[in-house]
Design goal:
about 550 residues; alpha/beta; pyruvate-formate lyase- activating enzyme; 2 domains; nine-stranded mixed sheet; two-stranded antiparallel ribbon; 21 helices; 11 strands
Length: about 550
């Protein structure tokens, strides 16, 4: 990203003690300079750990910067300035409470900014100002050709189709279970093509006015971005603006049709700094079971292809550490090390994101003996492969794995609202029984290691759930109301500072998403050719 504040001879712990904790014991630069924004339905957070909250349209009408600078975020910034641990950031607090030497993501998400920028955030901007973003992650919509087991209809149209055709999942009651009992209607209120979406309009205004000059990284997630019309419009913008210096990254499942992957590879050559993020954390049948829609051999082949053909800064592999990936995770990392051997250390940079929701799919639900055995296997892999980075195994990857090992061994409740172990176990079995029927899969064939435990879990038979629930998690964000009430009671200054548009109604999503994108790319290319021919004619005259 161009800026990295940690000194070369400094550990992440030393950096944290020297810089971040000097500002406050709960300070995180991401709350000021980083945002994840779901433009399809107008939700935001400062990183992927806290729950999203709604961007109020009455705030957006004052300023496009309210996409990031909501009153709620400002209130949380004030908490951080005062050394109070915001409850929404418990993922990091849980890691840090494992021991002083454990490095949480607030360190990794702060170290990309300079010492001066972090100091300015607290001492100059404080909590009242509308901060200009430096790193931004956006999702235009939920269009996706995968339906991964721990994802849901909020982020995947394939998941939406499952729920609309088969109805909500039954016999699930633990925290996070509701993710499989809604059809995702809330996630795309402006339809698959995002017509008259005020959040998209605000993004383009901010992008044209400031973001294209100020951002250090723009990253597009999904869904699957290559199935999003707005993503291809952005790629088309880049063709017309090749001098734009913003480093660009895209999350892709690398399981799209060949023509879309071809177009993505072509687009990478129009961008000065281009990175790809893709997700996988297991191999073979286990990978395909966890990530419905994935063909393991195709994914691995495409990883080699993009490293060979695309214009790349790096390929980042986001591993979502869930209860099922632990049984082939070391084999998966072996494959990533082979990629590093062929193309260099940044051909497959691994990150280890520990799944917490839904808790019944989390590693904390596995029996203790299995967890300890898996931790030992991973620890052995780390010890066997660590040679101070000379083989491409990076410090940050090793740190992430050591943190994961500690988490597997010591953490029994993934988050504040984790349900009881018995409830989680029952939901685990209920979910995968239904998942198998809906997806044509076989849990015990994919994970024979879990047969004894799985078969010991009693079946659950509750009153049938007939109607899908409202899946808009932002409505039930457990933190927003309390923090904003405190801000009101104490007279905190949270008001936005500028101006922007309104809102429209629901548009039913279309079908044939990938083919539509292929047609859109062709149309954009035709339009570009036409303009070029007209301009050539004018020049000739």
């Amino acid at each position: 990203m161009g800026v990295y504040a940690k000194k070369d001879d400094e550990t992440h712990q030393e950096y944290r003690d020297r810089v971040i904790d000097k500002l406050s014991a709960s300070f995180c630069g991401a709350k000021w300079y980083n945002a994840t924004i779901w433009l399809g339905n107008g939700q935001t957070t400062s990183c992927h750990h806290p729950p999203a909250h709604k961007i109020p349209l009455d705030e957006l009408k004052f300023s496009y910067k309210a996409l990031h600078n909501t009153k709620y975020k400002k209130a949380v910034r004030k908490q951080m300035m005062e050394g109070i641990r915001p409850k929404e950031c418990e993922y990091c607090w849980k890691i840090e409470d494992l021991g002083k030497d454990k490095i949480s993501d607030r360190v990794y998400k702060s170290v990309i900014y300079t010492d001066e920028e972090l100091k300015d955030a607290k001492e100059t901007m404080g909590y009242t100002e509308d901060v200009d973003l430096k790193t931004l992650e956006i999702a235009f919509d939920a269009n996706c050709n995968f339906a991964c087991s721990y994802c849901n209809a909020s982020f995947s149209t394939t998941w939406q189709k499952d729920i609309k055709v088969n109805g909500p999942y039954q016999n699930l009651v633990s925290d996070g279970a509701g993710a499989f009992q809604h059809d995702g209607s809330h996630s795309m209120p402006y339809g698959r093509k995002n017509k008259e979406n005020p959040y998209i309009e605000a993004f383009w205004k901010w992008w044209e006015a400031e973001l294209q000059f100020s951002l250090r990284e723009l990253r597009v997630t999904g869904g699957e971005p290559t199935m999003s019309p707005d993503f291809w419009k952005l790629m088309d913008w880049w063709k017309d603006n090749p001098d734009c210096k913003v480093p660009f990254a895209v999350n892709s499942n690398l399981g799209q049709k060949k023509k879309l992957l071809d177009a993505l590879i072509d687009a990478s050559h129009n961008i000065k700094k281009f990175s790809i993020y893709s997700s996988c954390e297991a191999v073979g049948l286990q990978a395909e079971y966890i990530r419905h829609g994935l063909d393991w051999s195709v994914w691995l082949e495409n990883m080699y292809r993009i490293n060979k053909e695309a214009n790349l800064e790096s390929v980042n592999v986001m591993m979502t550490i869930n209860s099922l990936c632990l049984f082939s995770i070391t084999e998966f990392m072996d494959e990533m090390m082979q990629l590093k051997k062929v193309f260099g250390p940044h051909a497959a940079v691994m990150s280890f994101n520990i799944l917490r929701f839904p808790s019944f799919q989390s590693i904390v639900t596995l029996p203790t003996n299995i967890r300890l055995e898996r931790a030992a296997v991973i620890e052995k892999w780390v010890n066997d492969h660590w040679n101070e980075g000379s083989n491409g195994f990076l410090d940050i990857e090793r740190d992430g794995l050591l943190r994961l090992i500690e988490y597997i061994r010591k953490v029994d409740t993934g988050h504040e609202f984790t349900s009881s172990l018995e409830t989680r176990e029952r939901d685990f079995k209920s979910f995968y029984q239904q998942y198998d029927k809906r997806r044509g899969k076989d849990f015990l064939k994919a994970f024979p290691e879990l047969r004894t435990w799985y078969e010991s879990i009693p079946d659950t038979n509750l009153t049938p759930l007939i109607k899908a629930i409202d899946g808009d998690d932002a409505k039930s964000n457990k933190y927003v109301t309390g923090v904003l009430q405190q801000a009101k009671d104490e007279g905190w200054v949270l008001n936005p500072q500028w101006t922007n548009p309104g809102s429209k109604g629901y548009i039913e999503p279309d079908e044939e998403q990938q083919d539509d994108m292929i047609d859109l790319i062709a149309d954009l290319q035709k339009g570009r050719k036409k303009v070029s021919e007209v301009n050539k004619g004018k020049t000739a005259i």
